[in-house]
Amino acid sequence: MKNQAIIRLLFLIQIVFWVGNIYAQKETKTIKKYLTGTDKDNTLEWDFFCSDGMKSGKWDKIAVPSCWELQGFGNYNYGRDYKDKKSYFKEYGLYKYNFSVSEDWKNKNVKIVFEGVMTDAEVKINGKLAGEIHQGAFYEFKYDVSKLLKYGKDNLIEVKVNKESSNESINHAERRADFWIFGGIYRPVYLEASPKNNIERVAIDAKANGNIVADIFTKSKKATAVKLVLKEDLGKKVQDVSIKNLNKEDDKLSISAQALNIKTWNPEKPNMYQLQIYLLDKKGNTLHQTTKKIGFRTIEIRESDGIYVNNQKIKFKGVNRHSFYPNSGRTTSKALSIEHIKMMKDMNMNAVRMSHYPPDKHFLEACDSIGLFVIDEVCTWHVPYLDTKVGKKIIKETIVRDVNHPSIILWANGNESGWNNKLDNEYHKHDIQKREVIHPWAIFGKMNTMHYPEYHIFAYDSPRKDKIYFPTEFMHGLYDGGHGASLDSYWKQIWNMPLAAGGFLWDFADESVIRTDKGGILDSDGNHAADGIVGPYGEKEASYFTVKEIWSPIYIAERFIRDDFSGIFDVENRYHFTNLNECKITAQWVNFNGPKKAKDIKVMSESNVNLPDLAPGLKGTFTINKPKNWQSADALYLTATDATGNTIFTWSYLVKNPKNINNNFISDDKIGIIKSTISGDKILINANGNRFVFSKKTGLLKEVKKGDKIIPLKDGPILLGSKSKLEMVNVIDSEDKVEIIALFEKRRKYWDWKENKETTQDFLKWTIKPNGTLDLHVEIRNIKMVKEYMGITFSFPEKEVRGMKWLGDGPYRVWRNRMKGTQFKVWENDYNNTVTGETEFVYPEFKGFFSSLNWLNVKGNHNNGFTVYCNSKDTYLRMLTPDQPEDPEKGASVKNFPKGDISFVKNIPAIGTKFKEPNKMGPYGNEIHYFGNDDEPIVLDLTFEF
Question: Which residues form the Glycoside hydrolase family 2 catalytic domain (predicted)?
Answer without folding.
Answer: 300-517
